[in-house]
Design goal:
The chain is an alpha+beta fold. It has two domains: 5-80, no CATH class; 105-214, Aspartate Aminotransferase, domain 1. The protein has six helices and six strands; from the N terminus they run αααααββββββα. It has helices at residues 5-12, 25-28, 33-41, 59-76, 110-124, 196-214; strands at residues 130-133, 138-142, 145-152, 157-161, 175-177, 189-193. The chain has a six-stranded antiparallel β-sheet, with helices on one face. The longest helix has 19 residues, at 196-214. Residues 111-211 form the DUF5655 domain.
Length: 215
């Protein structure tokens, strides 16, 4: 989806163009587009036949499908249209967030803020790291690739490391495989940070994720 794929994912996830009907939603939730296409190919729902001729699933593809579905709706229910013309929505500028306006940002106070600031300082020391505050989490990126995401909680932090779980599964029981579970942030490995000592334990894994995205 390009450099701003995380923002695009958040803004288009539950929109008309990105929705379909299937009895396998839980199985498909985190699958890539090619895997989903193989399921849709065997679907008996006519709506899913659309995907057989689609090779990519990017922002333009999602918006194109939304327009086509909207047009079909107007043909079926012309009452809701005006001359069957689908009006293009005004393009809104990307919304920027701060620690105060992001979701769960109010948790960044007291001990949780101390945890976050200690972690933030450790991550930014790794090198060419960019911090990006999104609606539901804070992303740390190198070369436009997220290597760790932070979700503030009421009394702790959840980190999502962008490394395959099998690379860290022997590092300790504090690592959790979330490759098949929905969550905010980017990465297959979840780590919960409850104390300052947890940060020193998890930083070697964060550095591994950082170097992995460096290539």
């Amino acid at each position: 989806m390009g450099e701003n794929w995380e923002f695009i994912h958040e803004t288009l996830l539950d929109t008309l163009g990105n929705l379909t009907l299937t009895g396998y939603n839980s199985e498909l939730s985190n699958s890539n587009f090619e895997e989903k296409k193989s399921w849709y190919r065997d679907s008996h729902i006519e709506l899913n036949a659309y995907f057989s001729g689609i090779e990519t699933w990017r922002e333009a593809d999602i918006k194109q499908r939304a327009q086509e579905l909207a047009q079909r709706c107007l043909e079926i229910w012309p009452y809701f249209g005006k001359g069957n013309i689908v009006q293009q929505p005004e393009v809104q500028p990307e919304q920027s967030y701060t620690f105060e306006t992001m979701h769960n940002g109010d948790y960044l106070q007291g001990e949780v803020l101390e945890l976050f600031e200690d972690f933030q300082d450790s991550v930014l020391r790794l090198g060419e790291v960019r911090e990006e505050i999104l609606k539901n989490y804070i992303a740390y990126r190198v070369r436009n690739r997220t290597f760790v995401s932070v979700v503030p909680l009421q009394s702790s932090l959840k980190l999502y490391l962008n490394v395959p779980f099998n690379e860290v599964r022997h590092e300790g029981s504090f690592c959790r495989d979330v490759s098949n579970k929905g969550h905010w942030g980017v990465g297959d490995v979840e780590v919960k940070v409850n104390t300052l000592s947890d940060i020193s334990r998890v930083m070697p894994l964060v550095e591994r994720a950082y170097r992995r995205q460096l290539g």
